[in-house]
């Protein structure tokens, strides 16, 4: 093949054109010479190409032999890529279309190689994380065979041995009864293993998905004992702090006034006794109410659902606390525990009046949704900042100086016991909206 012209690229079509032109020129020359010598022009026209065809075949084959080798190499590297081997590369020094093809092929191999390395690294990282997570993870195939079990799963279900390939039913036969019962119930849930002295609490999560076109199930078993006990201890500490604070706030002045009353009796200063006794009575009643509220929260019974006419229920509320009503004149019949919901809404309405809102701006709104009732208690007070909104529904959380932190928490308990929910949000223009949703 002729060398490329300096500064220009010699394409394959140009190479073939030059080679064919050269042989045609040579054949024409030989034909003219033979025609002049043999005096038979038509013989010359037939003899010259016949003599040059083998030579033309040889040179064409020789010119295109490197290309054939390149095509075989390309086929081999493509087969290697298909098998996941990206370590091969090609070399082609000519500056033509094949050179462009080789460069593009090598760039593809480099990109695939880098992606493969990144993928392997991510797989190693993921496998390390899965193996060393404290959550037991078990992947089960459609035939109920374990495809994968991490170290925590081996420790929990296999005495430290590998679980892959084993029948999941056989593994469950060797597992605690509580785990089998939790799986039979279906869905997510919690179960307890062990006795009272060595009790372990677990949360079971189940997720189904398709892997390689086949349905698999992933089981996650998370031990909650330490976390729940830590939260339980923190909750009890908070309860004790709140109760101690309230008891001290009441008992300290009661003790002090009782001592002062005794001194007044000794001195014969009886005219000051009624004031001291009234203060003692006030603090004692406050303490009584505080303890009663805690007992009510701790002993909230399951709601006794019954059909209640909303109009009559709202009228009874209106007789106990002032508010404006928004809703239908004849809203219909609801199904709830009237005593519990009345207690809940009275607390919410009283909070609305204590928010700094004008009495006329405290509103109770009732709306019928397709499958539920929505009750809103609205005010135009100061509202709540983000921190208070995030914690206001938690037990024992209060921003009031003498608050117990149980009013909103009790409302949440009542709503959730009815199968509903409660939410707090600030209103545009100021004020708070307490929205409660109950099943219809």
Automatic annotation (TrEMBL):
Pfam families in alphabetical order: HATPase_c
Positions of the Histidine kinase domain: 242-440
EC number(s) reported in the record: 2.7.13.3
Main location: membrane
Compartments it resides in: Membrane
Native organism: Lysobacter dokdonensis DS-58
Stated name of the protein: histidine kinase
Transmembrane segment boundaries: 12-36, 42-60
């Amino acid at each position: 093949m002729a060398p490329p012209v300096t500064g220009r690229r010699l394409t394959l079509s140009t190479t073939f054109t030059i080679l064919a032109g050269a042989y045609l020129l040579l054949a024409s020359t030989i034909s003219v010479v033979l025609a002049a010598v043999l005096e038979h022009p038509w013989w010359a026209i037939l003899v010259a190409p016949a003599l040059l065809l083998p030579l033309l075949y040889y040179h064409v084959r020789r010119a295109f032999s490197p290309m054939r080798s390149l095509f075989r190499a390309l086929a081999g590297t493509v087969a290697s890529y298909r098998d996941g081997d990206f370590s091969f590369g090609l070399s082609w020094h000519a500056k033509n279309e094949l050179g462009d093809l080789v460069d593009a092929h090598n760039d593809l191999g480099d990109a695939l190689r880098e992606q493969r390395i990144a993928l392997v690294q991510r797989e190693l990282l993921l496998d390390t994380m899965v193996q060393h997570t404290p959550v037991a993870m078990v992947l089960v195939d459609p035939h109920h065979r374990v495809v994968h079990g991490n170290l925590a799963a081996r420790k929990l279900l296999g005495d430290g041995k590998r679980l892959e390939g084993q029948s999941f039913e056989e593994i469950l036969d060797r597992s605690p009864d509580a785990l089998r019962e939790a799986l039979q119930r279906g869905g997510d849930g919690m179960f307890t293993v062990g006795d009272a002295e060595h009790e372990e609490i677990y949360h079971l999560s189940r997720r189904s998905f398709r892997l390689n076109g086949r349905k698999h199930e992933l089981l996650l078993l998370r031990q909650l004992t330490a976390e729940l006990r830590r939260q339980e201890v923190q909750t009890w500490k908070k309860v004790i702090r709140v109760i101690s604070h309230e008891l001290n706030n009441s008992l300290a002045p009661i003790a002090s006034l009782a001592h002062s009353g005794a001194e007044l009796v000794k001195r014969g200063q009886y005219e000051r006794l009624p004031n001291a006794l009234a203060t003692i009575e006030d603090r004692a009643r406050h303490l009584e109410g505080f303890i009663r509220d805690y007992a009510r929260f701790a002993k909230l019974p399951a709601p006794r659902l019954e059909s209640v006419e909303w109009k009559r229920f709202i009228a009874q509320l209106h007789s106990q606390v002032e508010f404006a009503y928004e809703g239908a004149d004849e809203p219909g019949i609801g199904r709830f525990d009237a005593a519990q919901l009345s207690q809940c809404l009275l607390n919410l309405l009283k909070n609305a009046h204590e928010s700094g809102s004008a009495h006329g701006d405290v509103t109770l709104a009732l709306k019928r949704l397709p499958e539920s009732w929505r009750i809103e208690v609205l005010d135009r007070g100061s509202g709540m900042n983000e921190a208070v909104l995030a914690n206001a529904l938690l037990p024992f959380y209060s921003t009031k100086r003498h608050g117990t932190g149980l009013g909103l928490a009790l409302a949440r308990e009542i709503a959730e016991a009815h199968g509903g929910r409660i939410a707090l949000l600030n209103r545009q223009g100021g004020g708070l909206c307490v929205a409660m949703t109950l099943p219809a």
